[in-house]
Amino acid sequence: MDLKTLDWDEDLLRAFGIPRAILPEIRSSCEVYGEAKLDAVRGVPVAGILGDQQAALVGQTCFNAGEAKNTYGTGCFLLMNTGGDIVQSQHGLLTTVAFQFEGQPASYALEGSVAITGALVQWLRDNLGLIAKSSEIEALAQQVDDNGGVYFVPAFSGLYAPYWKHNARGVIAGLTRYSNKSHLARAVLEAAAFQTREVVEAMEKDSGVRLSVLRTDGGMVENELLMQFQADILGRTVVRPAVKETTALGAAYAAGLATGFYADLDELRAQWSVDQVWEPRMDTARRKKMFGFWQKAVTRSFDWLEE
Questions:
Q1: Tens digits of per-residue pLDDT, 202-212?
Q2: Which among 123, 133, 131 is positioned nearest to 170, based on CA atoms?
């Protein structure tokens, strides 16, 4: 799809040998497309179409340029609304359509994808057996005051944004005889926050907008140790909404707007509420030192596989 025209790109159709006639019509994110035919829901309008991360952006009511959310799942997916501007990334991010409400111009977004975050907790559980349930990692990590100098770069299948290095592989750096399983658990959680900071900084460079608040959602946001460390290493406010599974919520918002269940975006904004807020508590010198070690560890993962 051509981001400017919001229609299929003729050059790409020719390049891939795809007849336009076999492709569906591209429509906005929010309008009535038809009605359900199954008996259980017959006659119910189908009225909202949003991709996974775009739906979460709408569920977080990030309707204004400069607003951003981060979804913490098996990976992390950070989207920043850039309004009507198509911002071509120079720092390893993707440019995409955020949403388009019926009768209105499209809003665009920058997207940064991190491959492994929550999946690293699962790896600690399933491959090493250090925890029996994913929810146990917070208590294990809290048994130590810090990471003990241990950094875990989970480049299991390469690095995504902002590096895009497919031949990187995972490394655990900074191990000493003092290191134990609690330090490793803490490094696992901190890896999600470090990778998020890298994407946030790339977005700020591309957009020219400094992010003051990061809205969070997804399964990992129940981990308060992670959320506090995210605020600390970002040096920004981190907010967890009352509704943490915002993807389904965003799709419902789009359908509700299309069918008149919601009057406008202001009504949707009024639906959004805060569950908890984390403010940074880490001093600047420590934040800089820890992030420097993280960046050093990341470079150790580069080019592990030879071309």
A1: 999 999 999 98
A2: 123
